[in-house]
Specification:
It holds the Pfam family Meth_synt_2. The protein is an alpha/beta fold. It has a domain of 346 residues: Alpha-Beta Barrel (TIM Barrel), CATH 3.20.20.210. 40% of the residues lie in helices and 12% in strands. The protein is built from 26 helices and 21 strands. The protein starts with a strand and ends with a helix.
Amino acid sequence: MTLTSHILGYPRIGDKRQSKFALEKYWKGKASKADTQAALQAVFDDNIAEQLNAGLSVITTGDFAHYDLVLTQAVAFGVLPKRFAGAEKLDTFDRQFYFARGRDHTGQLADTAAWQMTKWFDTNYHYLVPELDKNQDFSNTDFSQIFKQVADAKAIIAKRGAQNPLKVVLVGPLSFLYLSSIKTNEQAHSAGCGCGHGASADVSANDDDKLALLDKILPVYADLLAQLGEQGVEWVQLDEPILSLDLPNHWQQAFERAYNGLQRTPPKLIVASYFDTLGNNCNVAVNLPVSGIHIDITRAKSPKQYAAQVIDQLPTHKILSIGVVDGRSVWTTDQVAASDVLTAAYERLGERLWVGSGSSLLHLPVDLAHETLPSALHGKLAFAKQKLSEVALCARLATGEIAPDDTASQIKLTPLADTAKVRAGEFAERYAKQNERLNLPLLPTTTIGSFPQTDQIRKARSDWNKGVIDDAAYERAMKAEIQKAVDEQEKLGIDVLVHGEAERTDMVEYFAKYMDGFWLSANGWVQSYGTRCVRPPIVVGDISRPKAMTVDWTVYAQSLTDKPMKGMLTGPVTILNWSFAPSDAASRDVLRLQIAEAINQEVSDLQDAGIAIVQIDEPAFREGLPLKTADQAHYWQQAVAAFKHSCSIAHKDTQIHTHMCYSSFHDCLAHISAMDADVITIETARSGLQLLDAFKGNGYHNAIGPGVYDIHSPRTPSANDMQVVIDEAVKYVPVERLWINPDCGLKTRGWEETIAALANMVSMTKAVRQLYS
C-alpha cells in the first residue's frame, strides 16, 4: 500500500510570476478586475493540477492568497479598522489591497497608513499583521474566496476523473490572534492621522487582550468549518506555527479550550506546526481533540528521535503527518535519511502515518525546469514542483515499496583560519573623527541606498544579458542612471548621497554573483511579500571574493559630487539568511564568517579609494534567530561577530552605517547595540515606532536614523506626517546623534513619487533644524 501524501501549501506567484504581473497591471489601471482574476485563476488551476500530476493523495487548497494568507483570512473574518473609512464599500478583493498598500487603487478612498508588515517567523516571507480592536467584532464575514477555491479545486479533480479528497488550509485561531496586533486608543489615533504608524506584533504588548478575543473568533471558525463540511471538504489543515515557539502557559492552556470548541465540526481537523520541533508544546499538541497533527522534522537536530518522541505521546486513534521534505531547501531530499525516519514511524503507526512537506512550499522557487543547470548540480536541486514528486516518493519509501537512492547532496565547507576580528576605537572617539572629516549639518539627511529601478534600467540589463548590447554600452547606460540619481539628490538638497544601485538586480543576488561559492538561478523567484519577489542565491561551496564588487561604481558616483557618497554593501548575516544554504548551525557559522571576510575586503578597497561612509545593510539581522530560546544566544553571538568582522578593517574616520527593517526589535536591541555601527538607519514608520519605544527601557548610544516614512506604500506622506517620527525620536536620542531617512530603499517606487516624498522629508528636516540650532 501507499500512504497518504500531501503538502502544506504551494507558491501562488506562478512559474513565470504571472500573479505579480497581473496584480501590478490591475493596480496601475491597465487591466480590468475580470482579466486580473482570470490570470490569477490560471495560476490556481495549475497549482491544483500539479498536485494531481505528482500523485499526491490529498489535494491542498485554500492557501492561494492574492497578497498574503493572514491578510486574506483577516478580511474574510470581517476585520475592518475604523481608520480605513469607507473600506466597507470595497469588495474583499480590493479591500485586502487597501489594507496592504494604504492606497485604494480604485480611487474611491483616501490614502492612509498600510497595515504593519513583518517577517513570518524565521523566513524572508512577510505577512500583514491583522489590526484588531479590543472590542473586535467578527460578524461581518465573507468566506466567498475560500469557498471558490474549494469549488474550483473540486471541479479540476472531477474533470480528471479523480476522487482525491480535499484539504483546506486555514491559519489556526491561536496563531491568528497571537500574530495580530491590538490597537490602543493612542495607536489608533496615530495610525488614523496618516503618519505611517502600525501596531506592534509583539505578543507581550497586548497579550491578554488578544486571548480575550478567542471566544469571539471561535464561532467564526466553527461556522466556516461547518460550511466547508457541507461543501464536501474532508480535511481542514489548521496552521498553528506558534506551537514551535516557547509559549507561555496561558497560551498553551488556550489551545485545549479553543479546539474543544471546534471538535464537533464536520471536516476532520489536522493541526500543523512547522519550522521547528514542538518542544514543550508536544503534550498540548498531541492531546488536542482533532484527528491528527503535523510535525516538521526538517529543522530537528535529531529527526528520527523527534518523530519517535511525538509518536510515544500520540493517542492511538490519531494521525501523524511527518513533514520530511524540506519546504525551505532547494536541495533534493536525502532519501536514505527520510526512509530511516519514515519506515520506523510506519512500523508503529501503519496507515495512521501521513507523509508531507515540512512546511508550505511557498518559500521555494516554483519549477526547476526553467533553469539551465551546471553539470555539477544535475540531480541535486528540487524546486516546489519537484518537491511534490518527492513527497509522493517518500510515501512509497515509508512502506518499503521502493528502496531509497543513496546519492544525497552534501556541501563540504572549510572554516576560515582566523577568528572574527573587531574594529579599533570606541564610538565616541570614532564619531568625533568622522564629524570632523564629513562636516555634516545637524540632522543629516540620506536615503537607504536604492533608487527606482525603471523600465530603462531593466531593458538595458536584459539587453546586456542577452548580448544585444556590449559591456561598454551597458556601463554607459548604468552611469547615466547614476548621474540621474546624483543630480536628483543634489537638487533635493540631501546631505549624504547614494549612487542609486541601478546596476543591482537585488541586494543579495548582486553580491552573490561576484563571489565564489554561490550559484544563481535564472528564474528561481520566491515571494517576499505581496507582488515583491526575490531570487535567493544557492550556496554550493566555500564563499570567497575574487575581486572588488562595488568600488568602480561608487568611485564614479563620488566623482560627480562634492558631498559624501555612501558605499553600499549587504552584510554577511543578510546575505546568508537570504540565500538557500544549509540549515544546520555549524555550517551557517562557517558561511557567515566567510561572507563577512569578503565584505571586509570590500570595505578596505572602498576606503582606500577615498569613500568616507560605507553602509553594510543587515535587514535580515533578526530573521535567522532560532525559534527556541535555548538556541538563540549562539545565533546572536555569531551574527554580531560576523557583522563586526565585516567592518573590522575600517579606519576610525570611516563611518560605518547599517540598515534594518520590517522585524520586531524589542528582544534584540542589546545585540543591535553590540554590532557597534556608527549609524543605524531603521524602519520605524510602518511598525509603530516600536524600536523607539524599546529605547524607553534600553537606550541606544550610537547614531540612529529612524525611518520617517514607509516606502512600501505608494502614498506620499506630508512633511508633518514625517515630523511625528522625529518629534518622538528626540525624546530618546540626542539630536546630535539623529539622522533623517526613509524606512527602506526606494527601488520599488517611481521617480515622481520618490522625489515628492524626499522633498517633503528635506522640507521637514529644515524646519526641525531651526528648532534645535
